[in-house]
What does this fold into?
Amino acid sequence: MLNFHKEHKNLVLTAGGVFIALSILIAILPAFQMQKTEPIPDEKPLTANERVGLHVYVSENCMACHTQQVRNIEMDKVWGSRPSIPSDYFYSKQRMDVWRQSPSLLGSERTGPDLTNIGVRQPSEDWHLLHLYNPRAVVSASVMPSYPWLFREVDSSAVNKGDKVVAVPKELFNKPGLKIVASNDALRLVDYLKYLKQTELPGGVDAFIPALKKIQAERAEGGSQALDGGKLFSQVCAACHQETGKGVVGAFPSLVGSAIVNDANSEKLIRIIIQGYNARPDYGVMPPFGDQLNDAEIAAILTHERSSWGNAAPAVTVEDVAKIRQYVEMELNK
Ligand code: HEC
Ligand code: HEC
It folds into this structure.
């Protein structure tokens, strides 16, 4: 056996091997996975100004007290309309420059509030500037530090037209003849804070109400005519899973080659459509469609999924869906 006390070479080799294996597992593999992430279709890239602000945010180490991650737990609901997913970080994950890797904005301490959605909660530039100059000016019991070096004291007569003067209350700044002017860094930092908004997922509830209404109207007229699974898929599922079935990496899973879609036993697949699905943190939330779509429509959509984009699994019948729906209802009534 390995004798670490006598064979120091074994000790060094084992420690080295463990170090390399852990580095691959927790640093290199996740980095590759992150590189494949795609943006949510409506996600806005940072403007040049907002990116400068992001760099100020990093250099002032605001992450020491603020997170940017809405977890999928009850107490985090106040910080956003949904849990954060990898695609949310698509534009901020770029490298800072050649020498510095992407900034870690997630944060681990919440001494102050989570800032994922601060641009929605607090859109006022004046509020942010005053708050940065001295948080006590707007939140009397705040323990957040002041950032006076992001501001200049300027003689009233020397204030230029383009300068942003911050109206600081007299109790905090009372030097006659002087004004507080925001530096470029302060303005850019506030641009960045105002940029921080959660992107609405495509097909957020409102988006598919019209499509579902249309399907229901067609159902009322059409009666028993054969259903077009491909068309139904485009109307309700493609907003998230895309026409190609490939989804959006980091937001919506691919249905191409998916083990769930191609499973010979279609129970889990049918349940996902009827009950919705929210099992993995790397993806958003799939809403339930059991109330809006009937058994024949669900069977048609799933048969389309199982026979498109290279998938080759047996069709799903109306009876299959009816049976699972019955199970689901029994479970709910229990
Ligand atoms: C020592 C911890 C600490 C640091 C560092 C810190 N903050 Fe804060 N921050 C807080 C606390 C505590 C609050 C809540 C009280 C308040 O609003 O001032 C807060 C509040 C805020 C708010 C208002 C949030 C809301 O939901 O109303 C913003 C915006 C903010 N901080 C931005 C920043 C920025 C930008 C930086 C870096 C320049 C920073 N903070 C650095 C502790 C900190
Ligand atoms: C609002 C966006 C959205 C819509 C619309 C949507 N889905 Fe999903 N779907 C998701 C998300 C997000 C997941 C992954 C959830 C998780 O794993 O936590 C998912 C997962 C799935 C899965 C599991 C795939 C796998 O391999 O993990 C299937 C199958 C699926 N959806 C089918 C459908 C069908 C069929 C429709 C249309 C009736 C549909 N989805 C509509 C967002 C959506």
User: Anything to note?
Assistant: The radius of gyration is 27 Å. Residues 201, 203, 236-237, 239-241, 252-253, 255, 258, 260-261, 269, 272-273, 277-280, 283-287, 289, 301, 305 surround heme C (ligand 2) (CB under 6 Å). The chain has a mean pLDDT of 90. The CA atoms of residues 31 and 253 lie 19 Å apart.
